[in-house]
Every structure is written in C-alpha cells, then in structure tokens.
Amino acid sequence: MVIKMKTLVCGKGGSGKSTVAALLAKSMDRRGYRVLVVDSDESNYGLHRLLGLDLPEPLMSFFGGKKEMIGKMMKAFPKGEQIKLFDGKWGFDDIPREHLATKNGISLLAIGKIHDFGEGCACPMGALAKMFLDNLEVKESEVVIVDTEAGIEHFGRGVEQGCDMILAVLDPTYESLQLSKKILDISQKIGKDLRFVLNRVDSDREEAMLKSLANDRVAVAIPEDKRIFMAGLVGEDIDVRIDEIEKLADLVGAKA
Ligand SMILES: Nc1ncnc2c1ncn2[C@@H]1O[C@H](COP(=O)(O)OP(=O)(O)OP(=O)(O)O)[C@@H](O)[C@H]1O
Ligand SMILES: [Mg+2]
C-alpha cells in the first residue's frame, strides 16, 4: 500500500487544524508508526498540549535564530541564490534531540515561535519549514504531520512542495468554503493530493457545505465533540478516538 509520508494540515484560523493534526498523530502512533509532528505555526501555543508534550526549543534556534536567518535570506535572495542550511539529508534520528519533545511514538518539532514583540515576520519560518521538509527522508514505518498557520500564505512559500497529501480543515463558515476553492486551485497547480476535512458538522451543516464544495475531495465530516472541545479548552492531552479520524488515518497508512 502507498503511505502518505508527509501530510500537511491547513485551513482558516480556528477551523481545527491543530486538533485534526493531533488526533491523526495519535491514531498513527496507535498503528505503530513513528510520528513526527511538525509545528510550523509560530503563534501556535496549543498543539503541544494536545499531544501531552512540553514545547520543545524551536529548530530556528539551532540555525542561529530568526535574525540570523533573515540576514542569510537578505544576502542570498537578491542574487537569486538559495540559502543552504543542511549539509546532507536528515532522517528522523538526525534531528537534534534537544529540539524534540517525545511521548510514546510521537515527537514534536517546532520550527519557530514568536518570543518577543516585533518578531512577527513569518518569512524565515516558511523558508525553514520548506527546507527542513524537503531535506527530510522518511522511512516506511514513519510519518510526518505538519500543522500550519492559518490561511494560505505558506503555499506562497512552497511549504507543501515536499508533502504527499494536503488536508484542508473546513469549519462550517462561508470563509472556509471560499478558502477551499483557493486551496483546490493551488493544489491542482502544484499537483498535490488534496482532501477536505469538514469539521464541527451535523447532517444539516454537511449538506449545506457540500453544495459549495468539490465533493469528490471530501474525505470525512467530523462532528462537534464535547471531549475534543474540552481538551482544547483545558489544554490537555487529547485522547479521543473517533471513526472519522480512523478514516483519515487509513488515507495516510494502515499498519506500520
Ligand atoms: N470537532 C470539534 N468539536 C468540538 N470542538 C472542536 C472541534 N474541532 C476543533 N474544536 C475546537 O475549536 C477550537 C479551534 O481548534 P484548533 O485550535 O484545532 O484550530 P486551529 O485551526 O488549529 O486554530 P489556529 O488557526 O488558531 O491555529 C479549539 O477550541 C478546539 O478545541
Ligand atoms: Mg492551530
């Protein structure tokens, strides 16, 4: 069977990206995969809690921090050059331990975080996320799940080029439906397998959403779930097993 080694989760703000990424990671862990969750959203402070982990020191600091990255980019880009951060390919075991938080078979890597006021430029984040993912070699018993920042800016930075599948999480809002059209358009242009994950829906909401969506792309419809909501509110390890997530996990890979 084909394993989707690198899956990217995207969607509008608050649609449920981090929740879906965390639940999918847990399911893949139960299936025996080694799971790397990549947090490429610099203003995300909830994902690690859903995984029951502490926030690891971001990878950005391994490469000298954001200012250093911006400096390198400013030097290279006007000359049309690429910056080179990696000497060779990395596998899971080459990622520096001090930049990972691990529990059971799940490891979390954060690309970068906004620590200080005025550090808000996300360009180096996108650049590092792209370089890291492009450079990462994944074995058959391993999967990578990337949680992205809200919106579609990361598409412009090419973060999804190295991914095998894109999951767009759509909550029942006009904004999500509009965004789905843009994401479909972009994913077709870059030739990526796109699936929609409807979130927080009942049958009425699902029916209404399906009227405005490319239906053949819809993978699952996740209901509003009190346990999911409470885990997000309290900031605790999310331990919710639902069929819809198992269906998504089937798309990524059955058994390791
Ligand atoms: N199916 C669901 N049932 C109940 N609550 C949900 C569900 N999915 C997500 N939520 C809640 O919705 C809120 C937003 O979810 P989440 O943080 O995963 O969204 P996000 O897209 O990652 O947001 P951001 O854009 O801020 O990163 C959280 O409070 C979460 O607990
Ligand atoms: Mg999030």
Characterization of this structure:
With 256 residues, the protein is α/β, with parallel strands linked by helices. It contains ten helices and eight strands. Strand 3 (101-103) and strand 4 (106-110) form a beta hairpin. Helix 1 packs across helix 10. The protein is globular, with a radius of gyration of 18 Å. The model has no long low-confidence stretch (mean pLDDT 92). Residues 17-18, 41, 44, 147 line the site of magnesium ion.
Nearest-integer average pLDDT: 92
CATH homologous superfamily grouping: P-loop containing nucleotide triphosphate hydrolases
Strand runs, count: 8
Give me the CATH architecture, please.
3-Layer(aba) Sandwich
Largest sheet: 8 strands, mixed
User: Kindly, what is the distance between the CA atoms of the first and last residues, rounded to a whole number of angstroms?
Assistant: 11 Å
Small-molecule components bound:
adenosine-5'-triphosphate, magnesium ion
Give the number of helices: 10
Shape, principal axes of CA atoms: globular
CATH topology: Rossmann fold
Residue fraction in strands: 15-25%
Radius of gyration from the CA trace?
Answer: 18 Å
- Which spans of ≥5 residues are poorly predicted at pLDDT below 50? none
Number of domains: 1
